[in-house]
Amino acid sequence: AIDNPLNDPDSTIARVLVMAGYVLTVLFTIEMLMKMTLLGIWGPADSGAYMRSGWNVLDFVCVVVSILSLALEGQSRFKALRSLRAFRALRPLRMINRRPDLKIVVEALFHAVPALANVVSVCIIFFVLIAIIGVGLFKGKLRGCNGDVFDSQIAGQADVYHFLERPSDFSGMSNEEKLWFGPCSSFSSVQSRYEDAFAADSSTALSCADGGEVYVNGTLVSDADDLESLGLYLRPTWGDDTPTSRDVCEEWGASWERIVPQSFDNVFSSLLTFFEISTTEGWVDVMYAAVDSRGIDMQPIRNHAEIFAVAFSFFEVFGNFLILNIFVGVICAAYEGEKSNFITPEQATWKKTVEIALMIKPKRQKTRDESEMTATAARVIESPGFEYFIMSMILLNTVLLASRHFGEPGDFTSAAKYANWVFSIIFISEAVAKIWVFTWRTYWSDQWNRFDFLVVLGTVLGFVLQWAFDIRITSVVQALRAFRAARIFRLLRGLEMTKRLTDTLVLTLPELA
């Protein structure tokens, strides 16, 4: 790393590096010869011979390259072989052979190559399929009118821009729209067509007033049909056909360009685009362009096809979170396999048992008073019907919270307020009943009960701040109201598999930190 081709060959650092190269090469050569003598140079696959180990082969290559580099130093006849010195960069890899932990990682990577080849095949099939679909849906559509003319003369005029979005043939144009393509059009590209057509005709003098009126030999002619009857109106380049947005854009002198750098015009560009956005690079811009797209050579309209936003979101989930992360899973599996080679099956079983035992915490047995009322309340609270009722209330409360929006009617606001009171009373009553039946100590020992209690406490605190102290609109009260939405996580408790995943996630948080 210290060696530099710009160093002065006669400097002290250059001489020290040369001497260090000689010393290290001699030491590594002696090490290699000693290993060859002890292990043997070659032998059967399971003999443990020197050349039967890939790490020893790496050491051998590094030593031979070092010897050749030193031997050919200063030999002008072997300049072509000086490129071998580049292989000296492999020397740091020899450290891996001295560190078992690093060897496990590297060997896991090499052993994962066959499995990674299968993953690559799956990814190629997936992306090619999606690319073909992308070509069918979006080829030629992610383009629009652009350029200086568009910015200065089209985008700022609502009627002009509307015609660009929805052009019509000549018979369907209004007189005003026809004059946009007439001799006094505000677009210089249209005016130049008339200048080229009538410049040599001295008998016809076309002139334009400041207001855009057309004068023919001094006579005002402001109707496009009259101009056409006089032979002084040039039909646009598309003639009597219905033009596309691109035809209109280019007729007015603007340019038809890509909206985003990516495209789906062919399977290769589509494949590249999907691979790029699968890494979350620029996928939002591509999604917006697809949502606005209308057709080939047609000007995009905002949110024209919103369903494509859902499609791109699903692609991100599968293409980024699933497909590409399979690579990580394969490498992790190979790494675990390499580690398992160093322990016996009995040790692996013991290790797993200890890990499970460390994660399990003893739970207190629910205790309750012996009174008939308490026993009846306990049976009700522990019954499946009560749990289903609470879950349905949580779901309805979540739907209500999600339905609140800006500009909502006053009647809806009042109804939502009263409904929130009802839900709050139900959840507060549930918490109070559980504490009364199971006692505070037993109730608080359950993690989910703690979560419920904190949500209920936030609800009560919000009511206290709002009504007791007449605090109506503050960020604190709004935050406490929004905190009620966290109750939806209680639905996870009713789904056994989801509950296991949630508990596992919570248990792994310390390791992730």
UniProtKB/TrEMBL annotation:
Q: What is this protein called?
A: Ion transport domain-containing protein
Query: Does the record bear Transmembrane in its keywords?
Result: yes
Which GO molecular-function terms appear in the entry?
Answer: voltage-gated sodium channel activity
Transmembrane stretches, start-end:
12-34, 54-72, 104-137, 307-335, 388-406, 418-439, 451-469
Q: Where in the cell is it found?
A: Membrane
Keywords attached to this Swiss-Prot or TrEMBL record, sorted alphabetically, are: Membrane, Transmembrane, Transmembrane helix
Q: Which GO terms describe its cellular component?
A: voltage-gated sodium channel complex
PANTHER family assigned to the protein according to its UniProt record, in alphabetical order: SODIUM CHANNEL PROTEIN 60E, VOLTAGE-GATED CATION CHANNEL CALCIUM AND SODIUM
Tell me which species this is from: Phaeomonas parva
In terms of SUPFAM superfamilies, this protein maps to:
Voltage-gated potassium channels (SSF81324)
Q: How does it sit in the membrane?
A: Multi-pass membrane protein
- Asked if the record carries the keyword Cell wall biogenesis/degradation, the reply is no
Q: What is its main location?
A: membrane
Q: Where is the Ion transport domain?
A: 13-339, 385-512
Q: Which Pfam families match?
A: Ion_trans
Q: What is the lineage of its organism?
A: Eukaryota, Sar, Stramenopiles, Ochrophyta, Pinguiophyceae
Coiled-coil region: none
